[in-house]
Amino acid sequence: MLRSILYNRYTITFGTIALLAIVWNVYVIFNDDGIVVGHVVTSDGSPVENATVVLSEKTLLVTSPRDKTTTDADGRFKFSGHDIYHVYLEAYKNGVGHAPQKDYHLYFKGQNLYLSESLEIEKTQ
Amino acid sequence: MHRYPRWPIHLMLSFICTLMLIPFVWVLKTSLTGENIFTYPPSILPEDPHLFYYVDVWYSIPFFRYLINSVIVSAIVVAANIVLNAMAGYSLSREFAGKKIIIVLFLSCMMVPFQVTIIPAYLITKELGLLNTYLGMALPLCSTIVCIFVFKASFDAVPKSLIDAARIDGLSDLRIIFRVLVPLSQSAIATNIILAFIWSWNNFLWPLIIVRDQAMQTLPLGLSRFLTVVEDTTGALYAFCIMVLLPGLIIFLLAQKQFIAGLTRGAAKG
Amino acid sequence: MVWLHPFQVGHTVFEMQLIKKKRTRELLLIWFFITPSLLIFTLYRIIPLLWNGILSFQFWSPYKPPEFAKLYHYEEMLMYDDAFWQVLWNTIVLMASAPIGIALALFIAILVNARIRGRDIYRTIVFMSYPVMTVAVGIIWQWLYNEKVGLFNYILMSLGITDKGIPFLQSFNLALPSVIVASIWQVLGFYMIILLTGLQNIPPSLYESAAIDGASAWMRFRRITLPMLKPSIFICFVIGIINSFTNFDLVYVMTQGGPGHATDLLVTYIYTMAFKLSKFDYAAAITVINFLFFLGLTLLANKASGGEAGAVDVGK
Question: For the domain with range A36-123, which CATH number is right: 2.70.70.10, 2.130.10.10, 2.60.40.1120, 3.20.20.70?
Answer without folding.
Answer: 2.60.40.1120
